[in-house]
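Q: For a teaching session next week I want to show students how multiple molecules come together into a single three-dimensional assembly. I've collected the sequence lines for a complex. Could you give me the predicted structure tokens for the whole thing so I can convert them for display?
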Amino acid sequence: MLTTSDHGRVRLLTFDRPGALNAMNNDLYWAAADGLTAAADDPGVAVVVFTGNGRAFCAGNDMSEMGGGNSSTVSAGRGNGFGAFTDGLISYRKPVVAAVNGLAVGIGFTMLAHCDLVLVAESARLKAPFPTLGVAPEAASSVSFPVVMGQQTAAYYLFTAEWMSAEAAVACGLAWKVVADDALLPDALALAGKIAAMPIPSLVETKQLMVAGRVDALMAARARENDAFGRLIGAPANREAIAAFLEKRPADFTSLPEV
Amino acid sequence: MLTTSDHGRVRLLTFDRPGALNAMNNDLYWAAADGLTAAADDPGVAVVVFTGNGRAFCAGNDMSEMGGGNSSTVSAGRGNGFGAFTDGLISYRKPVVAAVNGLAVGIGFTMLAHCDLVLVAESARLKAPFPTLGVAPEAASSVSFPVVMGQQTAAYYLFTAEWMSAEAAVACGLAWKVVADDALLPDALALAGKIAAMPIPSLVETKQLMVAGRVDALMAARARENDAFGRLIGAPANREAIAAFLEKRPADFTSLPEV
Amino acid sequence: MLTTSDHGRVRLLTFDRPGALNAMNNDLYWAAADGLTAAADDPGVAVVVFTGNGRAFCAGNDMSEMGGGNSSTVSAGRGNGFGAFTDGLISYRKPVVAAVNGLAVGIGFTMLAHCDLVLVAESARLKAPFPTLGVAPEAASSVSFPVVMGQQTAAYYLFTAEWMSAEAAVACGLAWKVVADDALLPDALALAGKIAAMPIPSLVETKQLMVAGRVDALMAARARENDAFGRLIGAPANREAIAAFLEKRPADFTSLPEV
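A: Of course. Below is the structure for the complete assembly, covering every listed component.
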């Protein structure tokens, strides 16, 4: 699920479901949420780095659990891992670096707006597929994307569900640097290590000050997005999206009953 | 005043007072506000596109109605069309694309910060002339311009009233792409059509989520700007601006009584 | 301390402690705060320009006064000049241009996010050294830097305390233009003069409208930053930073007691 390793004062958390392109099921959400909490509480950890094992960073929500299903047993009874991970990341108290090694879809894309420094491999591609699934933005991206990328860029990627290139991610402000695929993890650990040489109390206060300036707007977005999701899930467009996915055909949203 | 046509699920609204460079009088404000409302209420419309007929997108407020005059008869008794149009656009529930075909002055410029995706023809030029008229920013641009363009760019154009080029509009984040003049409308309709292929409920929820993150700040700006306008209209600088305009001479604001 | 001169309707304020690289002691903070107040109250002043005499714009807080010491006599009994200057600049009612002629460190860097238009000499370099001193961001930079520079850029410079080049300052949105060192002051005065040709009431209303959109968030950041500073000053990392400075050795923050 999630592999953990320490590099000096840097905690590396690796999404590790490569067979599923690191799609997030409830177990992985909880593993990531728990990994964040453990790193926050560990006095020897200054910086957290996220990356993915295999050709994806994170392929988004596991479609098999869409609509509230929970196919896992490990996290059974622990409730909504998505919320725990997302809200934990939004209000995290230590610097977070992301090393985006490949596909970053859905939460794999939207989580990046809550990371302090994002390095993207040149082959990485990012997508917010929400309208193609008949749903709407999540993880506070309806507010974080306009703030981080600019209003026009956010509108383009949220309305069209187009792929964003690594270069475009840097150009719009979502990411800090594009690096060669082979250099991604070394460069991310070097950047994190540079930050980790600073005093941890300064890093924690700095991060908390930055979070304090935006957390209320992001949590308000989370609440509104949850409401919107409740209205859209299971509605005709979402049902058509799922049917088209299962039938391996393009979805057709233009002949749905008008609303 | 305003020409309406449908292209699949895209509603095209064309400012159509070419003899007046599409300057906004109260009739045109109301026509645009009504056009927005009709498109919002039409279940077959997914996306609205604004453009202008002739060599201007919109030349700003019709100077002949400055100071509250209303030369029109059509909108007589309907009150302030500027507010209806601006507030309607700020809180609009469907995606809005702008195809800026030429001069965009005053409201023709400031409205763009409330459009989701702005395409600018390479010959387009934009201007916020407020200080040269002895007034101050309107249509929430005192807040939207810093957010959308960046603080320095907004300050430059709001304080100097300089022309902004199409390239500068894209570079600062106000616009999405510069396109060749001949390609503007086809490209805008193609972009809008790509969005319009998505399910309308997803588009509406997405747009409303994005609006919810900024609408309070924008409406607060609108109220403050109205107060400022009330203090400035008819004051010495505004009177000098109007006199200079009528006398076809440059205004001189440096010899006004000090305040 | 601070040299004042008028150029038409432009008030030039020059930090003038070149022997100390224009480091801010309490006297200079108060001189700058008083200079701002006098220019705000002078009906003949439209725009304020800040620059520095010598090879620095401003080298930050005078280290000899760190921790609350006040080595000056002029400002004795006047209290915290830092707060008076910073809060005065954040809520200033007239346009402010900065001409960054050289080193801009600490407050010399963070104050720029509250200036409307920043010109940087090509040889200028900027730094936010807070974590290397065991402290955290000040002058509302924990909120202003993400807004003005973008979230990733702000995180990089606030967490690493790296030097920012003049080009990078423009690329990220903190500054408006890079100019040749020799052209800096003439260009800044020309830009300020262009603004100063506009009616002062329009400039004041415009600036106040822009400030109104951000002042609450900035003042909330100021309060949080003051609290953080109180927790960090005199704590182990800050003591190690000061000891290393006095002993002319690199600080080592990784062997401090964990917190």
